[in-house]
Amino acid sequence: PPPQNPANSFLIANTLSGDGVNQIIAGVQQFLFEQQPDMGNQLTRLENGPPVGYPIQVRLSGPDFDGLYTIASQVTSGLYDQAGILAVKNTWGLQTKKLVVEIDQDRALRSGVTSSDVAYSLRTGLSGIELTQYREDDQLIPVTLRSVASDRQDISKLDGLSVYSQSTGASVPLKQVADIKLTFEPGLIERRDRERTLALKAQLNDGFTATDVNNAFIPWLAETAATWPPGYAYEIGGESETSSDANASIVAKLPLAGMIIILLLVFQFNSIRRPIIILLTIPLGIVGVAIGLLIARSTMGFFTFLGIIALSGIIINNAIVLIDRIKIETDELNKPPYQAVVDACLQRLRPILLTTATTVLGMMPLWWGGTAMFKPMAITLIFGLLFATMLTLLVVPVMYSLLFRVKPN
Question: What is the pTM of this model?
Answer without folding.
Answer: 0.65
